[in-house]
Amino acid sequence: MPADTTELKQRLEFALAAAREASTLILPYYNNPDLAVELKGDESPVTAADRGAEELLRKLIAEEYPADGILGEEFGEREGTSGYRWILDPIDGTVSFVHGVPLFGTLIGLEQAGEAKLGVCRMPALDETVYAASGCGAWWQTGGADPRPARVSDTDRLDRALFSYTALELFAEYHRRSAFDALMDSVASSRAWGDCYGHILVATGRADLMVDPVMNAWDAAPLLPILREAGGSFVDWTGSETIYGGNGISVNARLRDAVVEVVTRD
Predict the structure, then answer these.
(1) Which helix (H) or strand (E) holds 187?
(2) Residues 229, 132: one domain?
(3) Domain that holds residue 225
(4) What is the pTM of this model?
(5) Rounded distance, CA 259 to CA 249, Å?
(6) Within 10 A of 143 (CB to CB), how many other CB atoms are there?
(7) Exposure check for the chain: N or C terminus, fewer CB within 10 A?
(8) Which residue positions in the chain have pLDDT lower than 70?
């Protein structure tokens, strides 16, 4: 086994354990009537669970990999010297979290020399995890069951596809409403299963495409390796495989070109 694959597998096991610890911290806040919700400068919500979970993840990483860099949604960037950088979103889908809806997740991504190599998406309230590392496949675990391979669907026509998205108002806010309407006219069905959950639905073959008009690196970092290893793609709206495009599409291999063509059509 190549040394880099061995290293990635070790880091993947660490990330899975860290995500489980974060779940233990987060869940007591979930559906807690005393949970305080603040608004950040961009009007998005944040809670003690978001901050506490990121602090925990940063502490675990600093103890295990002190030379690695860290970028997190809540506490910014810490430079590293190893060539590895962890990218963290402690609660992706905080709107769902604060409304008592279980479709929120803890996201852990890892870059090596600027390339997304590893991803973990754990849904604490669902006890469901989808994860991958480059060359190691993508996996899906629910509860205490054995992990099973995560694979995208084989749907090959948009008029048979299930399209997922986060929030309709975001398409309008980012001047993408025409793309949304074009997708709605093209697909068989749609559901607003949002945030990271929609993307892992694609990675596990339960939806065919997930489209977000706005994403940050911490939203996207784990999704690129997960979708790639699951046989699909995570791309921006130009079709480029990147976590820095400012938006994102998770899609199976057969529909990738058709979806990119629809969202870039004037």
Answers:
(1) none
(2) no
(3) 158-263
(4) 0.96
(5) 9
(6) 8
(7) C
(8) 1-3, 266
